[in-house]
Amino acid sequence: MKYLVKKVITLIMTLFLVSVAAFLAFQIIPGDVVASILGMEATPEREEQLREELGLNDPPVERYFNWMTGVLRGDLGVSYRYSKNMNEMMPVAELIGDKLPVTLMLAFVSLILIIVISIPLGVWWAKSGSHVLDAVLGVATQTAMAVPSFFLGILVTYLFGIVLKLFTPGGYVSYREDFAGFLGYLLFPALSVAIPKIAMTARFLRNSMLTEFGSDYVRTAYSKGCSRRRVMYRHVLKNSMMPVVTFLGMIIAEIVAGSIVVEQVFGLPGIGRLLISSINNRDLPVVEILILYITFVVIFVYFLVDILYRVIDPRISEV
Amino acid sequence: MKKKLLSLFFAALLTMAVLGGCGTDGTGESSGNNSSNDLSGSEPAYGGSVVVGIQQDIDSLDPHKATSAGTKEILFNIFEGLVKPDENGNLINAVASDHTISQDGLVYTFTLRDNVKFHNGSTVTAEDVKYSLERVSGILDGTALISTLSSAKGGIQKVDILDEKTVQVTVGSANTELIYSFVAAIIPKGSGEEAAASPVGTGPFSYVSYKPQEGIVLAKNPEYWQAGLPYLDEVNFKIVGSAETALMELQGGTIGIYAYLTDSQAQVLKSGGNFSVEASPSNVVQALFLNNAEKPLDNVKVRQAICYALDKEEIDDFVGGGTGAYISSAMLPTLTDYYVDLNATYGNKANQEKAKELLKEAGYPDGFDLTITIPSNYEFHMQTGQVVVEQLKAVGINATIQAVDWNTWYNDAYVGRKYTATISGITCDLTPGYLLNRFQAASNKNFINYANTQYDELYLKAQAELDLKKKADYYKQLQTLLCDEAGTAFLQVPANMTAISKDLAGYKFYPVYVQDMSTVYYVKK
Amino acid sequence: MGRKYSVKIHNFKWNKYLAAGLVMTGIAVLLGILGFFWTPYSTTAMNAAEKFSPPSLRHIFGTDNFGRDIFSRVMQGLGTSIVISSLVVLCSGAAGILIGALTGYIGGVLDEVVMRITDAVNGFPSILLTLVIISILGNGKQNVIISMSIVFIPSFVRIVRSEYLRLRDADYISRARLMGVSRIRILFVHILPNIFSVFWVSVMIGFNNAILAESGMSYLGIGVQPPDASLGKMLSDAQGYLQRAPWYALAPGLTIVWLVLGFSLFGEGIRRTNES
Fold first, then answer.
1. pLDDT one-digit tens code per residue, C129-184
2. What is the average pLDDT value for chain C, to the nearest integer?
């Protein structure tokens, strides 16, 4: 319990640090947001009017304070760049809420692909005694791990989109209109995010299982007359899964990062594209919230993995 | 050989456009049937919906506050002014059925067209017109939304309602080009506040919905004043992430019209067979802009040397596939009455001997270092930059590209004028003097810091001139001056490459940045 | 005494990972460095007649939309990538040693604060953090190096810190402390050489991540400016010509894979040598 409290406090501390850093960082970014909203043909009067409307003439400390209290009350502020129905400014919460499902689904589908493919692959690999297979898989996974996700995205586009015509590159369907079509399209970017991680996880599982095979309790189990199958699934796999769960938790950040870059390749309207266009548009409220949000998700997942680990393996909670 | 064929093709296209223009000229009415991509024998069908790919997000749905060209091209379908441009670059009457301008150029009298209805069902009244004009000129609340009409700057001084069908506008100073500003949208009286939330206009399509980063949906205005238009029931302007995804979406059939293809994409699509790809001159002037206040570009000989060193043909071949129109000064070739062809001054091909000679005379026999700032979101300018760097290298100028994001470019280079050279495009509306205006020494848009009192005097004379023939002469002199002094290294007016699904016809190409969907229809099968 | 130099020459064992890694990185690094002095064709000269030539004996990787030789540009991009990544690993590795040594050995509040910061940075997707820093510093090769170095420091801090934590209570260190050896000397003369075996592996991993991050940044248009070639920028340019010239995307993409694979095999090889 004490441990839990300590963890929660560090989580909050980290988020606070990140929020201050994000806010400060964007105070020193060069460029005038008003000019970028209005474009080349704007009149100076209109620029001044907008500057006042956006509260850009207030001192920074006041702005941080207003912003933070707003965030704590659940008011994430309004976007400088996008407007809701073009009249009121678009609330950041709504803007992000609209894009978030895309990125989360992409990360989720990727994660599912990783689990569904890497675990059987890892088990099969560990079981097979074949040296040839071992070498082939070894080279294949090493190679897959070396492919940057955007190049993988291009390869997937070329192979599945242009050569095999299994999907229309860029033909994204909104999840609101056609959920099945949405998932069908998402499969390909998800594959680009997942392939390197599948390789990583399969290798990890295999190594973990091979280590278990060599351990004392496996020899004991065999000597007691357990079947190979039983030893395999009841003991080895169960014990090897522990570090794999942790490992999956650890690569969540990379899956999120991978999703963000892959969104660019496939033209998905997720938070990655929003973040990059917001950085370019100096849409500070959106950027700040996104940074805070991504940090929160990642740290929170680590936190959950940590808790999960303690629940599964009570030995650790003694520490 | 291929080039020759292409230029023949263009000559034919241009002639067609001009000839087509004669029919509608002066009548003030456009029947909408003389479209450029009319497939012979195709019969228009009513109804249907089309998805049009667009490049950028919308900046405002308030027609008076929208500033980006990418937004205006869409709003053209929702809103109309008293007058509006047609596909030949002429103004036709829209909400007004007629207009007269007094001899001294100070009083404009507009007669309203009968039974023009807003999308909300009410009929356009003189009150609505008065309100709209007072809003854009700043009479209403002191903030002018369209600078040429600004009451503080000699624009609209007062708007009088003579009778319920007649509005009289008094302006502060005579300017034959002011009429082009009356394309400003007419909106219902008092609707300014919610104009951006629920835009209501008189155009062929009405607003349905908008989603940031996704697009905007419009529906047919059944009561549009031009009989028989529009054909389509629904138009969906969809924001396409990048030029690459645009191509793939076209091939996948998720978008039917896309106006900003690159040359290489056009090649791919042409071979596919499902699209007709057509090139039309844009209203963008692309140039290697030279900061006249920066060393060594303050030296006229250095600027001339750069003009000689550039090979417009090669640039166009690499980045535009030979579809651009070469220019040497600040005027669109499509504005035929005002344009003077000055390409002979520096030639379309590079003249490296002449360039080196001028550099030597200027005191730079070994060339110099030059940084070219380019907004990196424009692939077209970035590619042009790479070709320009090579061409300058050939005469000893060691140029490097500095890619910056749009905001930095806008703030530092365009507004702050902190750059040496930059490649960019400036868009132009139908006003002939629009591009020349910015090169006056005192203009706040004169980001190249061109300063020539002779030019300024000539420009004032041109502006004050009410005789169009004489005015055109002044404009030609201004162009010549700017070209001879190499104020900046003008490159080309790139072509817009538009892909249109073969199921569709009736798409019209405008010399300004608009996408008129009212005449587009599905071909009856 | 603890182990002093774990990669000892006399028991240095070859394995096939090490061999394959060495050959692959060797070829890549040689080509990259050669690219600074000589390329088969100019990397910027354009040739309208040879636009989009497929791979052939003249142009083994084909040519791009300006008729430039892709192989020459890949050589140049490879060189730039290697130099940038080396500088990043050098800067962040050095900073990582300094910070990790101090926090690991001294501990306390300093340790706590530094660990919170590294946690936050580690949690945040690195490419986004680099983007954020770049948008503050502005675009350019130097700024890419600076921001990537900042982003990479925490991963080194972690490794170094845990090694210092492990070693600070080792017998020979306690003895040195008793003998009155100065703190600085203990930190950098007594402990530092003993962490290198572990540190080398993280340098290899860091180098790989740096190559991937650099190409990712240039894919997004940040860093090396055209007409100079960079592998990531070539990829993003090539994406527009995927149907017309697939080789344009394959050449820089496979080069990145080759380089990263080489380094990870090399790192794996070193790890195995250490274990045996």
1. 787 788 777 777 888 899 999 989 988 998 898 888 888 888 888 888 888 888 88
2. 84
Set of chain A residues whose Cβ sits within 8 Å of the Cβ of C266: none
- Chain C residues in contact with A295 by the CB 8 A cut-off are 120, 123-124
Query: Edge-to-edge, what's the strand order for the sheet holding B234-239?
Result: B205-211, B215-220, B234-239, B49-54, B257-258, B495-501, B275-281
Q: In CATH, which superfamily holds the domain spanning B284-493?
A: Dipeptide-binding Protein; Domain 3 (3.10.105.10)
Closest residue in C to B386 (Cα) is: C227
Top residue of B2, B244, B312, B401 to mutate, by most chain C CBs within 10 Å, is B244
The minimal CB distance from B210 to the residues A36, A86, A168 is found for A86
Handedness of CA B20, B23, B29, B33 (dihedral sign): negative
B46 compared with B196, residue with greater pLDDT:
B46
- CA C186 remoteness from chain centre: 29
What single letter denotes the amino acid at residue A310? R
pLDDT at A213: 78
Instruction: For domain B1-20+79-194, give the CATH number.
Output: 3.90.76.10
Tokens of B344: 């002979």
- Residue C98 has a pLDDT of 92
A76-93 confidence digits (pLDDT tens): 777 776 665 445 567 788
pLDDT for residue A35: 65
Please tell me which of A170-184, A293-307, B285-299 the model is most confident about, judged by mean pLDDT. Answer: B285-299
Per CATH, the homologous superfamily of domain B32-61+69-77+203-282+498-525 is Periplasmic binding protein-like II (3.40.190.10)
**What pLDDT is stored for residue A36 in this prediction?**
60
Mind telling me how many Å the CA of B318 is from chain C's nearest CA? 7
Contacting residues of A for B240, CB less than 8 Å apart: 170, 267
| pLDDT range class, residue B38, cuts 50, 70, 90 | very low
Indicate the burial class of A47 (C-beta count within 10 angstroms; 0-12, 13-18, 19 or more): middle
For residue B468, give every residue at least 6 positions away whose Cβ sits within 8 Å of its Cβ, in sequence order, or none.
B176, B337
- All residues of chain C having their beta carbon less than 8 Å from the beta carbon of residue B247 are 240
- pLDDT of residue B41 exceeding 60: no
Instruction: List the domain boundaries for chain B.
Output: 1-20+79-194, 32-61+69-77+203-282+498-525, 284-493
* Backbone φ, ψ for residue B120 (5° rounding): -85, 5
In sequence order, what are the residues at sequence separation of 6 or more whose Cβ sits closer than 8 angstroms to the Cβ of residue A41? Answer: B67, B147
Q: How close, in Å, is residue B283 to chain C by CA atoms?
A: 25
The verdict on a CB contact (< 8 Å) between C127 and A145 is no
Across the interface, which of C46, C225, C241 has its CB nearest the CB of B264? Answer: C241
A39–B407 C-beta distance less than 8 A: no
